[in-house]
Write a structure and sequence with these properties.
This protein is α/β, with parallel strands linked by helices and 442 residues long. The protein has 2 domains: 225 residues, Acetylglutamate kinase-like (Carbamate kinase), CATH 3.40.1160; 197 residues, Vaccinia Virus protein VP39 (Rossmann fold, 3-Layer(aba) Sandwich).
Length: 442
Amino acid sequence: MFRYKEPPIVISVGGSLIVPNGGIDTDFVKRLNVFIREEVEKGKRFFLVAGGGKLARTYRDAGKTVVGTMTNEDLDWLGIHATRLNAHLLRTVFQDIAHPRIISDYDKKLNNWKEPVVIASGWKPGWSTDYCMVKVAELYDAQIMINLSNVDWIYDLDPNKFKDAKIIKKLTWEECEDLVGDKWTPGMNLPFDPIATILAKKLHLTAAVANGHDFENLRKIIDGDEFKGTVIMPYEIDAGFYDREYYHGKKSGYIFHSRESYMGRFLQNLASIYRALLIKIYINPKNCLDVGCGTGRLIRALRSFGIDAYGVEISKTAREIAHETVGPYVKEGSIMDLPFKDNEFELVITFDVLERIERSKIAKAIEECTRVSSKFVLHKIYTVENRWMSLFHKRDFSRISVFQKKYWYNLFTSLKNVSILRRSFFKLPIFFETIYLLKKKS
């Protein structure tokens, strides 16, 4: 039934959306039905994890009223069965395109599932369905994890109780831990489950938290556009991340050699000479801009081959430790706002940069690179298919936008001002690298 093999999108559908006041919001379920089917037609696949919402709280309150005192485990089981009832509703709605079994055991992984939609529910006492969403992301290598509820953002305080509650647009999992704590209590009404937060932090995942009633906004999250909502990230992605620890080996991802070791430096220099030689042979531009140039090794190699090469780098540390012969040619700046004029460079290059940008900002970054180019743009990107990296490198958690090659191909072909040049630049097999050479249209 389902032709594509893209990683699934995991959406936690909050019970506050399905049963906001203990009764089913059929209008929301209808709109969700239409939205998911439209995205399935585009080749997307989904895990929908149903929450319990007011229904779960109603059963828990009833149990406590009748029995008096109940253990947290008993209270959790009432909530879990409420999520299963909501999941069965979604399974009925999507029965023609959904996997026949509702996922309620996350110790077991589906093998060779072909349906574009899988419905999931609560699992065990001790956490909410947020934890189930994180488990799904772990098991199926999901690239997008979306937590939908009835609020637009995460706030520093409960906005229903505090008028001065402030919107949080971005936070790390550590900051989320400070906000929600580290213990789960049945019926907790928090922006993210504390136990799920701990696991997501360990797995270095990224999550978007948004209002489930705004389906156009949900589409923007899926498509990688700017959206209204909060992003929870493994760490703060800014110049600070790429500073001292990254450039001195602790976060560089190399198993055998850090950047500061003799062998590490040798391999980095060798790679730069190899890349510069290919650029000289296949493109031979008069001038070139290396965006995200790091310590400027590639610039130095390019200039040794007679190419008037320059760089732009956001990290202060990288610029400080760049070779003295490179320093005059490197400017401080961000890929989001390059400090150069339109069409200033015949070739603009990025090496392992785009996968380190938030998904919602990738299109803007590509647009900026194209703007300052007069002829060619070369992007080397780490993609899912480059599996050799997992054999010789530790996981580099700065890569927050690792997608399949198809994602980037579709993105580049959708651009009106560039075209993809095929067989015009030497590339190693996809097992090793993914490279796109773009030509700017006049």
